[in-house]
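Hi,

Apologies if this is the wrong queue. I'm a grad student, and the batch job for ABC transporter ATP-binding protein from Martelella lutilitoris produced an output file that my downstream script rejects. I'm not sure whether the problem is my script or the file. Here is the sequence I used:
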Amino acid sequence: MMLEIERLTVGFQTRDGLKQVLHGVDLSLSRGETLGVVGESGSGKSMLALATIGLLPRGASTSGAIRLFGDDLLSLSERQMSAVRGEKIGMIFQEPMTALNPAMTVGSQIAEALRLHREISRSDARSEALRLMEMVRIARARDRLKSYPHELSGGERQRVGIAIALALKPALLIADEPTTALDVTVQAEILDILDQLVRELGIGLLLISHDFGVIARMADRVMVMQGGRVMETGTAEGVIRRPQHAYTRKLLSSLPRRVRAGLGDLS
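Support response: The file is valid. Your script probably expects a header line. Output copied below for reference.
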């Protein structure tokens, strides 16, 4: 198993005492598999992503285990965890501008991600940046190497974010609401790219979304969260066709009728 999380608890000290935001979360993920984590705002799904990649806010207290290829990430120092980020785990954020430097060209930013972790020449890094931009289907990629983030559309910026996340060939990719800020057409294109990467590169994808329609389209397995707890876990087909928990049924019933009809065709 590539990723195993056992009894993960996360809390923060407040004036009223310790406030827990994750309560004993368990999950597993294999290479070449997509696990969809779905829940409303405040369900704990984004906190789960930050805990996995070691980017929890200062002052967080944790217990349990997060194992990647058998190594417990919670026991690593910040320096060790910095090496894990990028090399073993890549992250795609909801708003790509969060991960992009507005003062650097996108080609330079992809190349920088490569040169920070590898001994590679500037020209080789630039060539690899071009290859990555073509992989994520950026039109006129050679010209776009010299573009700044503000010169790109939202969909193009998200593609650059994916390219940076993939630069060091991580085994695990975490995508936290990667299409929420995009229109429907661009959303479909980004999801198609992610699906292709999982199938062709054997990446394990932890896909986080509030949108059950997105999760249903992409995930092999689904984990439903509410209030920092796991409500239900199962195959995508099983959870969608035969939801066991009332909260899961509520999420599904809140979808537009046309989307629910499409889920009925899930195979």
